[in-house]
Amino acid sequence: xxxxxxxxxxxxxxxxxxxxxxxxxxxxxxxxxxxxxxxxxxxxxxxxxxxxxxxxxxxxxxxxxxxxxxxxxxxxxxxxxxxxxxxxxxxxxxxxxxxxxxxxxxxxxxxxxxxxxxxxxxxxxxxxxxxxxxxxxxxxxxxxxxxxxxxxxxxxxxxxxxxxxxxxxxxxxxxxxxxxxxxxxxxxxxxxxxxxxxxxxxxxxxxxxxxxxxxxxxxxxxxxxxxxxxxxxxxxxxxxxxxxxxxxxxxxxxxxxxxxxxxxxxxxxxxxxxxxxxxxxxxxxxxxxxxxxxxxxxxxxxxxxxxxxxxxxxxxxxxxxxxxxxxxxxxxxxxxxxxxxxxxxxxxxxxxxxxxxxxxxxxxxxxxxxxxxxxxxxxxxxxxxxxxxxxxxxxxxxxxxxxxxxxxxxxxxxxxxxxxxxxxxxxxxxxxxxxxxxxxxxxxxxxxxx
Length: 450
Prior knowledge:
Helices cover about 35% and strands about 25% of the residues. The protein has 12 helices and 23 strands. By secondary structure, it is of the alpha/beta class. Strand 7 and strand 8 (about 305-320) form a beta hairpin. Strands 6, 9, 12, 15, 20 and 21 form a 6-stranded antiparallel β-sheet that branches. Strands 2-1-3-4-5 form a 5-stranded parallel β-sheet, with helices on both faces.
């Protein structure tokens, strides 16, 4: 089998794996089998192209792939950035330049950037203001010092190969800023940029955007030391760190930096006042951020007047110690279930299902009775569920209920104001903001924008 065929096998098996994950879930037999096919294809490619003695081959070969689908997906996310780089090398006919080659040849092409801004294009508005008011006006960096793909001013010309621009400038950058948000985590391109920067040993600084919380970074590192874009003191600390790393003379720019930070904060109404921490832990300091929750999806379907089924899929993990769940419940700012005389703002989940047990998109009215009968047999009790250190637990919380019954009929279900409250260990609590995403084809008369 030649190198081109092995390359093709890696690419097609990866596509199959992604397709099966999306269609059936990480823990499905289809996804697990597809992962193992992709893994074998990667090993063959690395052995042929990098040799059996290479650190890449040894790293992949020594991985423990005996775990469940969640663990295998973590492994996929860990090594896929390296695979992308290897594939890119091969596609350039084995004539890739090393990082030092990129630096030495920069005078022959375009000057490489000092800072690479890894971000989602959906967040370009606030990041453009950050770049202009803090990096440019505050720190005095020139456009040619900054790689920022959302604006042509910073070196991305019309028609330019964006993938090559990103690759070259990550290789050449002295600092990579990871602008973390829900949009960032949902983007394969952003996660690949993060993985490439990590694999190249770049100095990475995580910056958390407003309305993101500590579950959004993913597998590469913790957000405990990340900079929050809504906090003035942390923006000052970030600026000081960039001054140190890029050897900027700040003596002449102190007033410009201070006013730049103030202008940035005042131009973003959502971050003018520091946002409350989304995670509350009343345990000792060393246990803060023990529980990590990610890949959260909140869906619903209306089965009739005031009759709804909701589903929350999520994954939990602890890298520091075992976690014991005590209570999980859904909360809204307004009453959403009960009667006009006895309405409630909370709905407790006393049990959970394995993910993919119920598919709301195919749920029919006649399935409700069957579902209510089968549910107790398929579910597990929440109380005292243990999440073992270093392991993921994939859960699906489902509930069938009626909205508040008024004299003229049932209320519609609200779309906003939701949060999931997870209480664990002795007295620790995590609050996760949610926004409801209905799977109904028609919204009229079923939901309201509160």
